[in-house]
Design goal:
Length: 368
C-alpha cells in the first residue's frame, strides 16, 4: 500500500518539482537579468520606432501628393459695373512667373483651370483702362474666386494749342512795329524784336513803306538833307534859292521813297522776302556784328528761310537808276552814279543794322 502510494505520488511530485524549478529559473533570470534579453530589448524597440517614422513620412507625402488642383474664376467690370470683354487676364505666381493667360468673355468673366494651391496674382490689361493687379491665394481643396475687379479709366492728357492764323499774328506784330521809335521820336519800323516773327503780307509791306515815307520825322529829315545839299551846292544844276532847295528836296525825297518802296514793298512782295531786320541779341559780339552786316545781303523769305537779299540790292540799284531821271544833266554820271548811289545805300543799311543790333534796341520804345 505504501509502495503504491509512493508510486502514485512520485510522478506528481516530480512534475511539480520540475515546474517549480523552471519557474525558479525564470524568476532568477528576471531578477538577475538575462544577457540575451538585455541585448535584444534596445535593438527591437528602435526598429519599431523607425518603422513608425517611415510610415508617418510616407503618409505625409501621399497626403501632399493627393492635394487637388483648383479653379480660379472672376469678372472684370468697368466703373459703371458693366463687364469688360476682351480684357487680357494674366495669372501669375509672382510678378515674374506667369502661369496662364486668358481673355475675358463678353460679360467680362474669366476662368483658369488646373491651378495648384499657393499665392496668386492677377494682372488685367484692357484698352482704355489702367492696368490692375490683384493678389489672391489658392487654398488646397478649394477653388479661388476673385471679387469683381473694377478697372479705372486711364487719365489722358490732351494738349490743344489754339493759335490764331499767321495773318492775324503778323497783324498784331505789325501794330507793335509801327509804334517803335528811337527816343520815342524817330521811326524804327523796319526791325522785329519778336523771337518767331510771322511773315508780312504784301498789304502790310506796302503799308509799312507808306507809313515810313510819310512820317513827319522822315519828312523833316529829308528837308535837312536837302538843306545840306543846298549849302554844299551839290547838284549845282538845281541852282540856289527857294527853287533850288525845292528841287533838291524833291530829288532827295524821291530817292528815299523810290528805294523804300521798290526795295521794301514791291520786290519783297514779288520775291516773297521780308524787308525787316530781325534782332539777334544773343551770341558773341563778333557773331552779332557779322550777322548785322550780312543782313544787308541776306534776309528771311516769307517761308522763314534765309536767302540772298535780292529785294534790297535790286531796290538800291533801281533807286540809283531812277535818280538819273531827276538829277541835273550836268551831274549825270550814267552807270557810275547808279552803282555809287547803290553802294552808299548798302553801306548805310549795314551801318543801321549794326546800330539796330547793339544800340537802338536799348533806346527804342513804343508810342501809341
Amino acid at each position: 500500500m505504501s509502495l503504491n502510494r509512493n508510486l502514485k505520488s512520485g510522478p506528481k511530485w516530480t512534475l511539480i518539482t520540475t515546474a517549480g524549478f523552471v519557474v525558479l529559473i525564470e524568476l532568477g533570470a528576471l531578477a538577475l537579468g538575462s544577457p540575451a534579453q538585455a541585448q535584444a530589448q534596445p535593438v527591437e524597440q528602435p526598429r519599431r520606432e523607425f518603422g513608425l517614422s517611415k510610415a508617418a513620412s510616407a503618409s505625409g507625402n501621399a497626403a501632399k501628393a493627393e492635394q487637388p488642383d483648383g479653379i480660379v474664376v472672376g469678372r472684370v467690370i468697368d466703373p459703371m459695373g458693366k463687364g469688360v470683354p476682351g480684357a487680357d487676364v494674366v495669372l501669375m505666381r509672382d510678378r515674374e512667373s506667369v502661369l496662364d493667360e486668358v481673355p475675358s468673355d463678353d460679360d467680362g468673366r474669366f476662368t483658369f483651370v488646373h491651378v495648384s494651391p499657393g499665392s496668386l496674382q492677377l494682372r488685367i490689361i484692357a484698352e482704355g483702362f489702367a492696368t490692375a493687379e490683384i493678389p489672391g491665394t489658392m487654398v488646397p481643396g478649394e477653388n479661388c474666386v476673385f471679387p469683381e475687379v473694377k478697372l479705372l479709366l486711364t487719365t489722358q492728357i490732351t494738349e490743344i494749342r489754339v493759335s490764331p492764323p499767321p495773318d492775324e499774328i503778323a497783324q498784331e506784330q505789325f501794330k507793335d512795329e509801327i509804334t517803335q521809335r528811337v527816343f520815342g521820336i524817330v521811326p524804327n519800323f523796319y526791325v522785329s524784336y519778336a523771337v518767331d516773327a510771322a511773315p508780312l503780307t504784301p498789304k502790310q509791306k506796302f503799308h509799312l513803306a507808306l507809313k515810313a515815307s510819310t512820317d513827319p520825322v522822315t519828312i523833316s529829315a529829308v528837308s535837312i538833307v536837302a538843306g545840306v545839299n543846298q549849302a554844299s551846292d551839290r547838284f549845282s544844276g538845281y541852282g540856289q534859292g527857294a527853287q533850288g532847295y525845292a528841287k533838291r528836296y524833291g530829288a532827295s525825297y524821291a530817292n528815299f521813297t523810290s528805294g523804300l518802296f521798290i526795295g521794301g514793298a514791291v520786290l519783297p512782295s514779288l520775291l516773297k522776302q521780308d524787308p525787316r531786320y530781325f534782332y539777334k541779341g544773343t551770341g558773341t559780339t563778333r557773331s552779332r556784328l557779322l550777322y548785322a552786316i550780312s543782313h544787308t545781303v541776306i534776309t528771311k523769305g516769307d517761308n522763314q528761310r534765309w536767302q540772298p537779299n535780292y529785294s534790297s540790292v535790286l531796290g538800291d540799284l533801281a533807286a540809283g537808276g531812277l535818280s538819273n531821271l531827276y538829277i541835273p544833266e550836268r551831274d549825270h554820271h550814267g552807270a557810275k552814279l547808279t552803282f555809287q548811289n547803290a553802294g552808299i545805300a548798302m553801306g548805310t543799311s549795314a551801318l543801321i543794322n549794326v546800330l539796330q543790333e547793339f544800340v537802338l534796341r536799348k533806346i527804342t520804345s513804343k508810342r501809341e
